Amino acid sequence: MQAQNCYDMIENQRDLSWDFVKLVLMFFVIFGHVCPASETEWTPVTRIVGLFVMPLFFFVSGFFQSKIHDFKSLLEKYKKTIYRLVIPLLVWGGGYVFLSVLKLYPFPDVSNSALVQEFVKNVISFLKYAPFYIAGFYWFLIALLLCIIVGSCMSFLITIRRDVGLLVLGISPLFFCILPYTLIELYHFSFVWFFYVAGMLFKENKAILLDMEKKKKWVVLFFGMLLVAIRFGVYFYPRDTFYYTSNLLLETPMKFIVRRYALYLTTVLAMLYWIRSFYNRLSKNKLITRFANYGQDTLFIYCSHMLFIDFLYKPFLQPVLYHVNGSLIMVIYEHIVGLLISVMLYFILQYLCGICHKSKMAGFLLLGVSQ
To answer: pLDDT tens digits for 102-149?
Structure first.
């Protein structure tokens, strides 16, 4: 009962422990994109990171899915989503398209009309498919947008008929996995929706979390779960699951999906427990508290670091820093360099984010901060 009251108190005020979780996750997102040297080269470290980073992000998002009490609050939720997510997505996506055009089609000599016409033709042809390129590049935001839209409807249904709503919510991942993955980015949504639902269902029993974090008897369980994740994660290729979730009843064995979801969920719960436990132990430290505040701006960090990775890091820095040969010493070198670059990049982007906070227009367009 006391744990329940604690959660009721923090519902209306910001709990920095969750921001700290997002801070840690976003750092690992950057690290996963920086290291290793090749996109096709997965090391044991990056494989384990891939097991919990994105699934835990959507788990936390589902946990904070606001309760929808009536149709008016549903429309209000969608309105806030447009300001906080859709507008920044369009702005960052527009930046991605602009940089892609500059990268693919160097500006021609204006004195040569044939080259100018060819340039304009190529740009127009590229812009026709710009929405698809944006959806692929910023798939995380597209999937999150779909989760919020569907999750809000589910929350509305739970308010009207709690028993029916919870049942529909519980079986909804199976329904979305039946849909064909030929629809743009649907395979990403069908994969992460499971964890969004898990977060929503976990919120229904939110007092359990505080109980687990206060009693030491849970340490053994979550330590064991972490060992299981490490044991199986070192041989696991996380990205494979994205492309084998949709149409699972038609093309993918059920055993494959169940085994992978079980491993993902085990890793998600274990990492959530240990990250929050780490923060709770050091929450009185001002430096840790300050770092936790950075977790509020994960949207800016995610969108901006993607542009840095694709248009600066991979074309120019990565070939200089990494020379893949597979030896142990080179793997260790790659990870050390990856960690250092990730730390520096995170703080540089956070500094730029602080500058954007000082401008209402920049905050509105780039950070999703309502004016």
So the answer is: 999 888 887 888 888 898 999 999 999 898 889 889 999 999 999 999
Do the beta carbons of residue 66 and residue 148 sit within 8 Å?
Answer: no
Question: Which string of DSSP letters, residue by residue, matches 26-86?
Answer: HHHHHHHHHSSSSTT---HHHHHHHHHHHHHHHHHHHHTPPP--SHHHHHHHHHHHIIIII
- pLDDT tens for residues 295-353? 989 999 999 999 999 999 988 888 777 765 556 677 788 888 889 999 999 999 999 99
Round to whole Å and give the CA distance between 303 and 95: 10
Q: Give, as one character, the DSSP assignment of residue 245.
A: T
Check if the beta carbon of residue 174 is closer than 8 Å to that of residue 125. no
Q: How far is CA 272 from CA 75, 145, 279, 280, 364, in A?
A: 31, 23, 11, 12, 30
pTM (predicted TM-score): 0.90
Q: Count of domains in the chain?
A: 1
- Which domain does 267 fall in, by range? 2-367
In the block, which residue shows the tokens 């096709």? 40
Q: How far is CA 237 from the centre of its chain?
A: 17
Joined together, the tokens standing for residue 245 give: 């979730």
Q: Identify the residue whose tokens are 């169940």.
A: 258
Give dist(CA 24, CA 227) in Å, integer: 19
Question: What letter does residue 215 receive in the DSSP assignment?
Answer: -
